[in-house]
Amino acid sequence: MRITLNQDPEAVTKAREDAGLSKTALAKAVGRSLSLISEIEGGTRNAKPDLLERIADETHVPVERLMARDVA
User: Fold this and answer.
1) What InterPro entries does UniProt report for this protein, alphabetically (predicted)?
2) How is the chain split into domains, by residue range?
């Protein structure tokens, strides 16, 4: 079974910027490509749970802060 977390692209971008990281630096830190980080921040791809956790670790925020919130 494959689990996908829906991240909030704006929250990912804000966390990265607040941590003082460029997209390139974040990509290198989490071992992924710049294009993947750009797609995640652009909302065209979802990160797998392990990647979202690594982004949270590198940006020093709880993973929940990077997740999309359902608005009813």
Assistant:
1) Cro/C1-type_HTH (IPR001387), Lambda_DNA-bd_dom_sf (IPR010982)
2) 9-66
| Buried/exposed code over 37-52 (b: 16+ C-beta within 10 A; e: otherwise) | beebbeeebbbeeebb
4 pLDDT higher than 60: no
Q: What is the pLDDT of residue 14?
A: 98
What are the start-end ranges of the E strands in the chain? Answer: none
Tokens of 5: 């977390």
Positive or negative, the CA dihedral 21, 61, 58, 8 is negative
Q: What are the tens digits of pLDDT across the range 23-63?
A: 999 999 999 999 999 999 999 999 999 999 999 999 999 99
Pick the CATH number of 9-66 from 1.20.120.80, 3.30.43.20, 1.10.10.10, 1.10.260.40: 1.10.260.40
